[in-house]
Amino acid sequence: MNVRTMLETRVRAIWAMAAVVAAGLGGFFLVPAAAGAAGGAAPAPERAAIEKIVREYILSHPEILPEAMQRLEDRQNARLLSANRSILEAGFPGTTAGNPTGDVTLVVFFDYACPYCRKGHADVKQLVASDPGVRIVYRDFPVLSPASEEAAMASLSAATQGRYRAFHDAMFDSPGKVGHDRTLGLVGATGLDVARTTSDLTAPALKAEVARNLALGRALGLTGTPSYIVGDRILSGAVGFDRLKEAVDAARAARQG
Question: For labelling, which of 5, 40, 51, 102 has a CA lying 20 to 30 Å from the CA of 88?
């Protein structure tokens, strides 16, 4: 689906949602609209009257459009996430943080070569420190360069050695551009087995995990890093601590009913 088609589809959906809102406020045309949905299209004069009222309502209340678009996006995301949630939140062994039995899981798609992920990393650390009920799943999503893919392989090797968080934090907390020498330097500095990690840079099982992450990202429509999944929301970019916290709180409230 190209961008134009996607936008046209969203606009049509928003108009349909706005029609529901307008119908609720202008009950006199609710019956014909419902009849049309149940038994075919409404007669042309009634349809024209409905469309005129909806158009006038939207023009008088344009503030409903962003809310309608957000609700549409949330519904689409909920369907996507429901189909992938069990795999998404499982995570590769050793790549989690926070409370292992937390009531809300935040999934982080990141690339070590992404400067926005560095800022996002600090936000996630703050979230973990402030919320004892959150569980974090990190997913290496190396889309920027071969160097970031190599770093992802090294981080997954660190997970198999029980040192994922030490390596992960060092990659984001220390200065420098992602590259072969820096990655291997941090492998040694964080107490990993350098020979084992070097061998793991081409390990089929770890390559398969990176491929799974990339496939998950494509399935969810992720376009860059960092991207966050929590509850039925997908947050794109370094959205900041406050938005992450708000999304976690919303997901917790939804779970509690």
Answer: 5
